[in-house]
Automatic annotation (TrEMBL):
Entry-linked SUPFAM superfamilies: Cytochrome P450 (SSF48264)
Binding site for heme: C491
Family named by the database record: Belongs to the cytochrome P450 family.
Cofactor: heme
Gene3D superfamilies to which the protein is assigned, alphabetical: Cytochrome P450 (1.10.630.10)
Domain of life the protein comes from: Eukaryota
Keywords: Heme, Iron, Metal-binding, Monooxygenase, Oxidoreductase
UniProt name for this protein: Cytochrome P450
Spans through the membrane: none
MF terms in GO: heme binding; iron ion binding; oxidoreductase activity, acting on paired donors, with incorporation or reduction of molecular oxygen; steroid hydroxylase activity
Length: 557
């Protein structure tokens, strides 16, 4: 280590000569301490490399065959010792970045780092886009911002596909007005679904994961993509889940001749999505009275309609099927495992379950005339303990890595990062970093602690009475929490996803009494252990449980 290139240190060590009369050991100790305190990596230095038995092979092989083990190996290597480590995947040099400050560099628009999102690599393998159309998207290097990235000017505005698509999401999905309206639509649909179930003093049993992935998923899908898609395609959700199951194989990118099964499953699902978008395009009157409504049954939410309108101008039916099939999966395939884990975490901890249930009851309102009960939606969305449970769920059950391409040399954490490399930050490290999440040292970051994000503060009401009340306050900074990615390409559905999840939990907890019975395997037999994440989903967002929870419930109202 070239620590004496550091002028400050060199001066410090020279200055130490005046202490020659001190015992030698004390001087050595002092030098050591100063070295430790004053040394900062130089911008010219390179971070340590992740060791591997066979250079250029072992790490790549481990990454390809067992991503979870690879990330664990990298995490163990950096933990508490380094902020950044480098390794190669094939010939590509990758820098794994950790620590709040360093990760921030990836989230903001740091010159030299270009957002390289998962979506771009999926055009062909997952969206099933024909090669000529992939070319249009690949040619567009102008970025998602209003102004094209430096050096990419000149592409006509109507060919800036990434920007146009991003704008549609920004305007009609992320914007508060629309996110809130879609949430209310979900509330409406989900409430009607629960209304159709009988109030009973008798218990009945159900599988938590099974119920969420069918009932809640259908309601969430209809709130964003309308009812027509389900009505005209019996088995749409089953086809979606089948495709979700083979998505890791598709992402791996092996050609059809090597794995025809996953491609056939995907194509069957996309054919359904294509049939739906083509008939909806034909039936919807884009100049009619519904042209500006927030929701209608053919397309569902306005964001879906606007995307369909724009995509149809530039893309063939095959691409439309792939795009909207993937969009449908985006709407439910992450929210469902997340909602399942949240419910399981509550039900396996009866004390936490009762606390959240009591909190949710404070958002129930009763109509004084009809006696009908409903939820105060704005209130339920801000309940502190419910939000804390949501953050814990996303922190521990979603796994994602932010990638950035290095387009010019850049310095992160004192290290120089080479042009042509890629930089990556992963939730597998950030989300379980004790330094960030367990500052009080009471609950390890690897543990689900429902009240982690609660702070008690003193409040004075209008009458001057003092009370200590719980407030939601995330235990770490936002740069330690990125289940939705970060920067310009952050998930545009994040507000809808969060609100769907809070809403589902609140409605179930308010209207039902629910108790865990036991863990069960896929075939319904009793399991002697809790579920674990399906490891193929590490790095691919919300990780489903590998088994279910059998529970019993009865509807109170
Ligand atoms: C727990 C739930 C969810 C998680 C963890 C999640 C996470 C993510 C992540 C990490 C990305 C990629 C960001 C990037 O490329 O850097 C993404 C993209 C996306 N998400 Fe989500 N998401 C969730 C739910 C939703 C929902 C409910 C919707 C729609 C209502 C949605 C719509 C999208 C869309 C359209 C994209 C692609 C955006 C683009 O092309 O730029 N997501 N999501």
């Amino acid at each position: 280590m070239e620590i004496f290139e550091n002028a400050t240190l060199r001066e410090a060590s020279v200055g130490l000569e005046q202490y020659a009369t001190l015992p030698r050991l004390a001087v050595v100790g002092l030098v050591f301490c100063l070295t430790f305190l004053l040394w900062r990596p130089q911008a010219s230095s390179q971070p340590p490399s992740l060791q591997e038995a066979i250079p250029l092979v072992s790490n790549t092989y481990l990454f390809m065959t067992n991503k979870e083990a690879f990330i664990r190996k990298a995490a163990d290597f950096v933990r508490g010792r380094f902020d950044i480590v480098q390794f190669r995947l094939g010939l590509k040099k990758i820098y794994l970045v950790t620590g709040e400050k360093n990760v921030q560099a990836l989230m903001k628009s740091t010159p030299g780092l270009r957002a390289e999102t998962g979506v771009e690599t999926l055009l062909e393998s997952v969206w099933a886009m024909p090669k000529e159309e992939v070319q249009h998207w690949r040619l567009d290097k102008t970025g998602r911002g209003k102004t094209p990235l430096p050096g990419t000017e000149g592409l006509p505005d109507d060919r800036r596909f990434w920007y146009i698509s991003h704008q549609i999401y920004d305007n009609y999905l992320t914007a508060k007005k629309y996110a809130d309206n879609y949430t209310l639509k979900f509330y409406d649909i989900f409430e009607k679904h629960l209304d159709s179930m009988p109030v009973s003093s008798e218990w009945s049993t159900f599988g938590v994961y099974d119920w969420v992935r069918h009932q809640m998923a259908e309601c969430a899908l209809m709130s964003v993509m309308g009812t027509h898609i389900i009505d005209m395609n019996p088995g749409f959700l089953d086809a979606l889940w089948d495709t979700d199951r083979v998505t890791p194989d598709l992402v791996a990118g092996f050609p059809r001749w090597m794995q025809p099964g996953p491609y056939d499953i995907r194509d069957k699902f996309y054919a359904m999505a294509r049939k739906w978008v083509e008939t909806s395009m034909a039936q919807f009157d884009f100049d009619g009275p519904d042209q500006d409504v927030d929701w209608e049954p053919l397309f569902g939410a306005r964001v879906t309609r606007e995307q369909a309108k724009w995509m149809s101008q530039n893309h063939c039916g095959e691409t439309l099927g792939g795009f909207f099939g993937t969009f449908a999966a985006g709407v439910v395939a992450n929210s469902v495992p997340a909602a399942t884990w949240a419910l399981m975490e509550l039900l396996k901890d009866p004390e936490l379950y009762q606390e959240v249930r009591a909190e949710v009851q404070t958002a129930v309102v009763t109509d004084p005339e009809t006696g009908k009960r409903s939820m105060n939606v704005p209130k339920l969305l801000t309940l502190p303990l419910l939000q804390s449970v949501y953050v814990e769920t996303m922190r521990l059950h979603v796994s994602y890595s932010i990638f950035r391409a290095v387009t010019q040399p850049v310095t992160i954490g004192g290290y120089q990062i080479e042009e042509g490399a890629a930089v990556l930050a992963t939730t597998c490290i950030a989300h379980v970093d004790d330094a960030a999440w367990n500052a009080q040292g009471t609950h390890p970051a690897s543990q689900f602690w429902g009240a982690r994000h609660i702070k008690f503060v003193e409040e004075v009401d209008e009458k001057g009475n003092k009370a200590t009340v719980p407030k939601f306050a995330m235990a770490a900074r936002p740069s330690s929490f990125f289940p939705y990615g970060g920067g310009q390409s952050i998930c545009p559905g994040r507000h809808v996803a969060k609100q769907h999840l809070l809403m589902m939990l609140a409605l179930l907890l308010a209207r039902f009494e629910i108790e865990m019975i036991e863990w069960v395997n896929g075939d319904g037999s009793k399991s002697d252990r809790e579920p674990e994440h399906v490891s193929a989903y590490v790095g691919v967002l919300a990780m489903p449980p590998d088994r279910d929870m059998k529970a019993r419930w009865r509807k109170m109202w």
